[in-house]
């Protein structure tokens, strides 16, 4: 493989193994090279270019030392070998080649030193990476510690919440106990107030006990029963007196009627016997005196009745007042007994519920007021103790929280520094990728230019072969090939211009001597060779001058340029080393600080373990309280369910009561409506009876008599008026059979009329149609209708024909 042959990675084959070694040392590909690797690649590139230049110079020197080795001429016959200037040039070129070789060796030594420093930097970088990994592991451990501290804080917060909820439940129970005590005291006050009111109403002494009060109330009840018996007796006596008064009133009315009849008879007798004898007058005076006496007796009886009525009303009012007082006292007694019983029941239920709520599986609280109060005082004392312990725990939690916050701040600062270093690393990686991209683009452009150069060089060599300059082209190279081709073209142009003169001279010579043609051709060939050699030597001189100028520039400016580049590279490496040392110092300080924090974390772990123990104790206590709360909740739920069941039963009873009340009200309304209708019927019956001339005041008139009279009255009316009435036979169809039989027996002598059937149209067979059929088709059907009943002949005699106009109106 040629020295300058390139591979796919853009590097020569001679440098490819070393580049592979560098990539293997970096554990990355060519796309992940760092600044030191890039510097090394640049040095390799410069070294490669210098080596190529040296190789080209050595080849040129070899060509200059043996320029005619490729030609068939012997070296002794070439006059250039004997030229002293060529030997001096050769010696100068050899000296320059030696100096360039020494510089190359020096650069190789510098390159080895740079490789050693690069290896040291890699080792330092690997050590820093190990330190960074160690720091990352320690950060993870700190993060785990922080998470455990957070979990402990959450557990403490949950326990605090549970403790607060337990305190709230205890306060609620205390409030319920206080409310129950207040209700009990209120009920006691109400009971005492009621007892005082009863004592005041009964007018007994305050020193008497409740048993005496109950006995007194019992006596009042017995007295009330006796008074009720007396009231019933007085009521019977009053009714008897009312009956007597009614009989007296009837007697008085009868006497008044007799007096009025006697007075009327006396007046009539006086008018007829106006001129009668004295005996008649005396009889009239006697009757008048008797009438006055009777009137006086009537007035006396009325006064006695009025006094008896007033006395009865006074007695009734007194009895009503006493009964109302007894009813009020009885109601107050029942209300007091009910309220006292309810208060005792509620107090007992409250004490039982409190005792059940305050009881536990190990301690049973009796449902007494003293036991409940003692248990509540014990719970209050325990709550105070728990409050003190919780306050201490909260203080410790606050201390741990402050410590944890400080640790969290340091961890956050460390995370910030780590993120900043990562950001710098990412930035450097981005810059490295950008520079590698630029380098790859430059390699691609260089490969393209190299391919174009090779194509152009091939074209120029082909052109040189066409111009017979192939040996000169092999000696001068690419730089002076264009100038050589231009000079060769000028020579050919001059040769074409001077070919005419040269041809004339040859003819003369040929005419002078016959064997000079071959010598002229040889001379022209030698002249062409000489011109080509001259052109070749001129090109070689230019090449040597160019090489000397390049060597001088390398000796004057190139050395200073390379030395400044090396100084800049060394300065960069020194800066990188200083930064790495600073990072190492920071890492050591961070390690020391993390060790201190680790010690603090160990202390915090011990504190957290102790807190865990305390929290476990608190959790057991809270579990016990929770079990107690669950038992109390179950009992409360059972009591609530029982109360709800009672409420539902009461609601059902109230609903049933309301339904019965609605039904009773509906029945009352229906009864009132029936009474109203009955009253209306009675009034209607009395009116009909009065209209028929019957005694309306007497209720013993049978309905059949009224109906028979109405029937006879209707029959007594005219024939035209009879058709407007409804016969009695149709409504009797819906009556009872006994009523029908009584009616038939009562009105046997009265003829019963039957109603004519409805007239049906013979055309459409519909009653009361609108088809306007002539009257002759309908008169026959009307004439065939007759009476129904016993009086058939009478009914036939009363059948009448109807005029067409009336038929048109009816249909």
From TrEMBL:
Q: Where is this region: Disordered?
A: 775-811
Q: Show the InterPro entries listed in the entry.
A: CCDC170-like
Coiled-coil annotated spans: 90-183, 277-332, 523-684
Q: Where is the composition biased (Gly residues)?
A: 786-796
Q: List the transmembrane segments.
A: none
Listed Basic residues bias regions? 775-785
Q: Does the keyword Transcription regulation apply?
A: no
Swiss-Prot/TrEMBL keywords = Coiled coil
Signal peptide span per the entry? Answer: none
Taxonomically, the superkingdom here is: Eukaryota
Instruction: Show the PANTHER family listed in the entry.
Output: COILED-COIL DOMAIN-CONTAINING PROTEIN 170, TSEC-2-RELATED
Q: What is this protein called?
A: Coiled-coil domain-containing protein 170
């Amino acid at each position: 493989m040629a020295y300058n042959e390139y591979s796919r990675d853009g590097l020569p084959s001679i440098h490819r193994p070393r580049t592979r070694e560098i990539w293997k040392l970096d554990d990355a590909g060519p796309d992940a090279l760092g600044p030191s690797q890039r510097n090394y690649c640049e040095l390799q590139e410069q070294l490669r270019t210098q080596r190529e230049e040296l190789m080209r110079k050595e080849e040129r020197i070899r060509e200059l030392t043996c320029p005619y080795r490729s030609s068939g001429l012997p070296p002794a016959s070439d006059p250039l070998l004997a030229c002293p200037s060529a030997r001096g040039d050769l010696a100068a070129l050899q000296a320059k080649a030696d100096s360039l070789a020494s510089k190359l060796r020096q650069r190789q030594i510098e390159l080895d030193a740079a490789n050693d420093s690069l290896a040291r930097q890699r080792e330092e970088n690997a050590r820093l990476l190990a330190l960074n990994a160690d720091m990352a592991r320690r950060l993870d451990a700190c993060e785990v510690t922080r998470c455990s501290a957070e979990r402990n804080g959450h557990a403490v917060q949950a326990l605090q919440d549970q403790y607060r909820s337990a305190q709230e439940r205890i306060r609620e129970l205390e409030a319920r106990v206080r409310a129950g005590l207040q209700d009990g005291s209120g009920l006691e006050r109400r009971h005492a107030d009621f007892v005082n009111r009863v004592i005041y109403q009964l007018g007994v002494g305050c020193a008497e006990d409740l048993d005496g009060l109950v006995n007194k109330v019992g006596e009042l009840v017995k007295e009330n029963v006796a008074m009720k018996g007396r009231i019933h007796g007085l009521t019977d006596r009053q009714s008897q007196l009312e009956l007597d008064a009614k009989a007296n009133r009837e007697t008085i009315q009868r006497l008044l009627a007799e007096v009025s009849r006697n007075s009327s008879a006396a007046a009539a007798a006086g008018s007829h016997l106006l001129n009668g004898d004295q005996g008649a007058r005396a009889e009239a005076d006697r009757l008048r005196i008797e009438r006055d006496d009777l009137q006086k007796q009537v007035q006396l009886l009325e006064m006695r009745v009025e006094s008896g009525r007033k006395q009865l009303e006074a007695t009734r009012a007194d009895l009503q007042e006493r009964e109302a007082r007894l009813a009020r006292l009885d109601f107050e007694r029942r209300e007091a007994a009910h309220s006292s019983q309810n208060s005792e029941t509620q107090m007992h239920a409250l004490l039982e519920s409190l005792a059940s709520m305050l009881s536990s599986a190990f301690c049973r609280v009796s449902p007494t007021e003293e036991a409940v109060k003692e248990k509540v005082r014990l719970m209050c004392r325990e709550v105070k103790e728990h409050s003190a312990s919780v306050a201490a725990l909260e203080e410790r939690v606050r201390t741990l929280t402050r410590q944890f916050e400080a640790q969290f701040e340091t961890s956050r600062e460390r995370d910030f520094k780590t993120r900043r270093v990562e950001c710098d690393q990412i930035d450097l990686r981005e810059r490295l990728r950008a520079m590698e991209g630029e380098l790859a683009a430059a390699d691609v452009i260089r490969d393209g230019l190299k391919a174009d150069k090779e194509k152009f060089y091939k074209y120029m060599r082909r052109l040189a072969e066409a111009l017979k300059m192939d040996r000169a082209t092999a000696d001068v190279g690419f730089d002076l090939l264009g100038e050589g081709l231009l000079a060769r073209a000028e020579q050919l142009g001059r040769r074409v211009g001077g070919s005419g003169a040269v041809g004339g001279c040859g003819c003369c010579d040929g005419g002078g001597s016959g064997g000079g043609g071959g010598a002229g051709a040889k001379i022209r060939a030698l002249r062409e060779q000489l011109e080509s050699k001259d052109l070749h030597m001129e090109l070689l001189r230019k090449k040597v001058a160019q090489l000397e100028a390049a060597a001088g520039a390398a000796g004057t400016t190139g050395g200073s340029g390379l030395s400044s580049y090396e100084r800049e590279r060394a300065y960069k490496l020194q800066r990188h080393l200083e930064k790495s040392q600073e990072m190492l110092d920071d890492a050591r300080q961070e390690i020391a600080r993390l060790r201190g924090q680790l010690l603090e974390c160990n202390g915090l772990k011990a504190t957290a373990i102790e807190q865990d123990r305390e929290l476990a104790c608190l959790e057991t206590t809270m579990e016990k309280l929770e079990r107690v709360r669950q038992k109390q909740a179950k009992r409360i739920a059972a009591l609530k369910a029982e109360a709800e069941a009672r409420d539902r039963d009461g609601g059902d009873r109230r609903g049933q009561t309301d339904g019965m009340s609605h039904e009773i009200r509906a029945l009352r309304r229906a009864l009132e409506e029936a009474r109203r209708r009955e009253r209306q019927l009675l009034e209607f019956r009395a009116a009909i009876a009065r209209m028929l001339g019957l005694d309306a005041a007497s209720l013993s008139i049978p309905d059949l008599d009224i109906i028979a009279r109405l029937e006879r009255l209707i029959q007594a009316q005219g024939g035209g008026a009879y058709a407007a009435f409804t016969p009695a036979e149709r409504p009797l169809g819906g009556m009872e059979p006994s009523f029908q039989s009584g009616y038939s027996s009562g009105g046997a002598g009265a003829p019963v009329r039957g109603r004519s059937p409805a007239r049906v149209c013979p055309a459409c067979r519909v009653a009361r149609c609108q088809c306007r059929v002539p009257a002759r088709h309908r008169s026959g059907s009307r004439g065939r209708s007759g009476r129904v009943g016993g009086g058939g002949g009478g009914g036939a005699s009363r059948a009448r024909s109807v005029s067409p106009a009336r038929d048109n109106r009816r249909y």
